[in-house]
Amino acid sequence: MKDQEGKTIKSIKIGDQKWMAENLNVSHFRNGDTIPEVRSSFEWIRMGKEGKPAWCLMQNDTENGKKFGKLYNWYAVTDPRGLAPKDWHVASDDEWTQLINSLGGGVLAALNMRTTGLTDNLDKANENGFSGLPGGCRNSSGIFYGNDSFGYWWSATELDTSSAFIRILNYVRCDINYKIFDKICGLSVRCLRD
Fold first, then answer.
1. How confident is the model over 111-144, as pLDDT tens digits?
2. Would you say 167 and 176 are in contact if contact means Cβ atoms under 8 Å apart?
3. Residue 145, domain member (yes or no)
């Protein structure tokens, strides 16, 4: 299977779900429209406040883009033109919960989701192929943080008009939790097969 830009989609089956094995890394919606890249903090905040879709690379570094994929604001995630490739969708909060539960929950799920980590037996980390890298995020002030310590992913589930549910994979404490983040933030995206 290929995404809207012709790149092969790597996938893995975990429980009853088929997940992408890496973060989404597209700069076009499914219909072919371009998603704007936003580099400056000022412009990132403006786009979010106006409810416009945007993406960036961690610290605006192309090497980070190759490794971690793109960071998207909520408005790109939920745009009706479709961020997810054909036959895929952005995972809901309930679908994230299902994934985490099928991997044993809490610390056990975190160990199984991260690519490498602080464990005596690194061969056990990521044996299911999820490959959850600590790619960091961009906060609602347009500041980058968390690179090499945290993986942040949007869910497709909103709380209210300004915030939505996310998942955070903490490499330092080895856990995975849900939080509520401002829709202006820039986070990674994982998709599920329809």
1. 999 875 444 444 444 567 898 999 999 999 999 9
2. yes
3. yes
Handedness of CA 96, 91, 21, 146 (dihedral sign): negative
Rounded CA separation 112/93 (Å): 19
How many structural domains are present in the chain?
A: 1
Which DSSP state fits 8? Answer: B
Angle in degrees, CA 101, 146, 40, rounded to 5: 125
Residue 83 and residue 31 in contact, taking contact as beta carbons nearer than 8 Å: no
Question: Domain residues for 62?
Answer: 34-184
pTM: 0.93
Which single residue is written with the structure tokens 């490959």? 131
Residue type, 163: S
